[in-house]
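Quick one, T. Sequence first:
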Amino acid sequence: MAEGRGELPPQPPLHLSLPPASKRPCLRPAPRGPGPGPGPGFPNSRFRCPESLLDCAAKAVAEKWAFERVEERFERIPEPVQRRIVYWSFPRNEREICMYSSFQCRVAGEEGPVVATGAPAGSGAVPGGVTSTTGASGTAGTGDGLPFRRGIRLLETGCVENVLQVGFHLSGTVTEPASQSEPEVTHKVAISFDRCKITSVTCGCGNRDIFYCAHVVALSLYRIRKPEQVKLRLPISETLFQMNRDQLQKLVQYLITAHHTEVLPTAQKLADEILSSNSEINQVHGAPDPTAGASIDDDNCWHLDEEQVREQVKQFLSQGGYYGSGKQLNSMFAKVREMLRMRDSNGARMLTLITEQFMADPRLSLWRQQGTGMTDKCRQLWDELGALWVCIVLNPHCKSEEKSGWLKQLKKWGDMDICPLEDGNYGSELPNITNALPQSNLAQDSLARPRRTVFTRAMEACDLHWQDSHLQRIISSDYYMSPAYQREGESLLFNPQGLPLWLDHVPTACARVDALRSHGYPREALRLGVAIINTLRLQQHRQLDIYKHQKKALPIHGVTTNLEGWVGHPLDPIGCLFGTLTETCRVEDDNSGDPKPPVYHHVPVWGCPDGGESYLALALEVALMGMGQQRVMPEGLYAQDKVCRNEEQIVTKLQEMELDDLLVQTLRKQAILLLEGGPFSGLGEVIHRESVPMHTFAKYLFSALLPHDADLAYKLALRAMRLPVLESTAPSGDMGHPHHGISIVPSRYPRWFTLGHLESQQCELASTMLTAAKGDMLRLRTVLDAIQKNIHSSSLIFKLAQDAFKIATPADNPPDITLLNVALELGLQVMRMTLSTLNWRRREMVRWLVTCATEVGLRALVSILQSWYTLFTPTEATSIVAATVMSHNTILRLSLDYPQREELASCARTLALQCAMKDPQNCALSALTLCEKDHIAFETAYQIVIDAASTGMTYSQLFTIARYMEHRGYPLRAFKLASLAMTHLNLAYNQDTHPAINDVLWACALSHSLGKNELAAIIPLVVKSVHCATVLSDILRRCTMTAPGLAGIPGRRNSGKLMSTDKAPLRQLLDATISAYINTTHSRLTHISPRHYGEFIEFLSKARETFLLAQDGHIQFAQFIENLKQIYKGKKKLMMLVRERFG
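Structure tokens:
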């Protein structure tokens, strides 16, 4: 494979150990003669000179060879050559320094710090061979607190001093300026490097973090930007070799004197060992030199603090699913991808460390024991972990031993019981990554499928290779095509236009694209991505041809679909292709302020024969293909939720694209193909009952197409309104708002956990169409029909009705009558759906419908009043509908004249009488109220109440209507109703707090006020119904206080005399009261306790007052007390209290 002109360079082997500073023995004698300075070609030079052959060779050697190999290869190396190799061995690319000093490296649309654009990314080459940072103080990084930004500030403010490079070791001091809380501090910094990689760092600040501190950054950037100001010396062993014995002794003694407190014990120990002939130190030839570079066997990778990686991941995981910790872990995943893109072997090393901590998360075993699923945020982190491992093992240039090591590790993790499963649900799984999926047989036995973990796809990807010659040609050339003479007939390698195809399981092929892109081969990723899209196009057209042929031959009965969807897939194939294609079309923004939506421009497809293809148009096309794919709903809550989330993510990205003529043309073409498509299109004529709905996708298509092709937009959206999973199970009534805890589909299909979300998306699509169709009666009628046919939730239809009403009645404009009628029609459907079912929003719905009908006008109100029985319960019709229609506000709102008011009132009265006939218990009072102004209607309503009084009405309902009658000036009718109510009442002896007592007292007071005859008529009813002594005595007392007949009924004469308790009708009441007291006394004494003795004595006192109203009452009471003493003589204390009070 090639990137641009050259072959992809082989990757260095991956090692998972942290490399120590080089201390290999150095024996070679030093060459004589002076060496050149740092060399020409620095960026500060006004005129750049071409690099010398020495510099060109030294750069190549410094990057690829360990210095020990150079020494072994050549017996004598001139000092100038050594100097140039040492000079070029320091890292040259600031992007790499930034990568190891901050999480946030994305700047101006690029995932890394801003570097000079005069050379290919990752090469580090600019004039003079030194990478520069253009405007780094303003644009590199995205936060002033990041170590990289702070390091730049320290460098630019002159805080780096005493910089010295001795061989492969760089040292210097960095002064941290004083702040309000901290004094100025100077830190000593030391950096070891080898083959353009920093292999170890030491700083006096004691930084403990994954990334380099700002002081290491400042020193590194000083060396990159100002190499001519750095004192360069050869490895110290070379300098020592040039000294004689006296000079060496003087050097050692001066060194010990300068650092005697730290060096003296070590110096004495070494001296003792050297003087001992049998010591280990004398068995080794030469001596170690930390400045002499790495040995051949040393690892060549950037310094990475493994312990800190482990600690930070462990800390983030321990914080649970909180936003901050999840964000930090995602940043670490992004850092791994950045390392892969820079072809840095630490990417796999860091991911291994992260995975080890993920697998050690104690919550995994807890979740497994409890049988509960992990949180969504945690699940998404595991998904990204699995996808990253697929990228790692698909590295096009990893060695077989590396892949074997990864596979062994992945199997070890995957075999652990606590390893999370791919579907997040401990349920059935999808087929193997390397196999194309069957297109039928939906009822596969899930128990036969093997256990698949989050690492299974990565393990399967280990079986993939890059040696296929056709694949190699695809990714190595923009102009790979079949010869013209071979384009006739079928081909598995090329389409009819001669462009290459890549026939592979689509998610697997896209995983290859993601791997190429992730490992720093963007051009190759684009080439393979284009081949995949050409394959999808060809398959789409062939499937359409087959479907059309089958359709002509015979009717389509059985419907097949894709078992595995591309949207929501663990490998995110559509998102991968879309990102790869749009990345090359993105216009970079130089401003690093607030994040803005991306801006794209068309980039022609390299090697396209007609030059008419654009990567941006291809990105749109593949997104439409993937979103429009008909696929079966996956099993499990997480998998279904992931489908919805992934769909919304892709739509968000599509909405960021500004549609021009070319993109609109692509959109129309693909929309038509999806509409015409057979069982492999989610927008085709026939779809499987279990297919994922297209509502979210169709809403985007509708909004995007509407300004350009309204007919096509409506056709698509109306087709997408269907939700077949509800069709065969929806009852004729209301489905209710979707909170379906149980499956509504046959058991062999998965449960639809996200049905509520899907129905709300269906509702949003309908609302979007209603808004767009405002004013167009024909379109509104079509949309209305689709809503009534496909939406089965009354709550959602009500929401649509409310939305339509709101849009149709703007605050500062006249209402849109067409849309108002649609809102009313939807409201009427809601009424019919919820009439026979329980719905807690029913009253709100009824009130809203009356409001909507009022806005529509008189005819709408008359219509709902006349057809009330299909829309409302009798109670709703009278208490809410008719009452609101007849209110003063409604009359004013409609500006009705007298005939119109009469028409409306007549309809309301007719409704009231019908409701009273149907449900007199709940509607009689409302009917009487509504019919007050029409004598005939009022009499009819009264008669309905009288007829129903003896059968279905309760005493409380009758008392309420009786009070209403008295209030309206009909006391005799009130008396009649009160008498009827009394026949339904029964007050026991101990119900002295019964809610009906007030009604009984009121009825007796009413009868007393009407006259002796009415009182005589009601007292027998009271005696029969009321057995509570205190209530009867209260009635008796009130009847004796005033003369009857004070209501002043016209035509009646009243004597004005008080009534006697010795004569009827009060005599009957008195006897009943005394009898009630006697019965109540015996009942209370049966279960009385000592603490109630005082209360009982007071009760007897009240009884005596009633007894004394009779002529021989004192004799009766005395006899009553004597009987108590005899019957209850066992209750000595109580009887003693009775004797004390009553004798």
